[in-house]
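Sequence of Anti-anti-sigma regulatory factor (Methylobacterium radiotolerans).
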Amino acid sequence: MSEAPALTLAPDCTIRTVRSLQDTLAAALAGAAHLTLDCAAVERADITFVQIVLAADKAARRRGAGVALVNVPPAVESAFRRAAIALPSAPVL
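Predicted 3D structure, token representation.
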């Protein structure tokens, strides 16, 4: 496995960008067990973002690691809250 990649997310992480985001996460996880998502630029996020992050984390956990969210803005916190999924106090999901 390679070193843990960091991926900077785009401002729009909604259903409009779900295909691109899903492809980007899958490519970033290929060959890497752990992935850090820098959410600083995210201005819009919805339930599809939450679902994709959780699916990526599940795939990474099958390899013994996970997905970490860093620089979490209010838009991401709100998306998780609306999905009734609490953001953990530690950055790893």
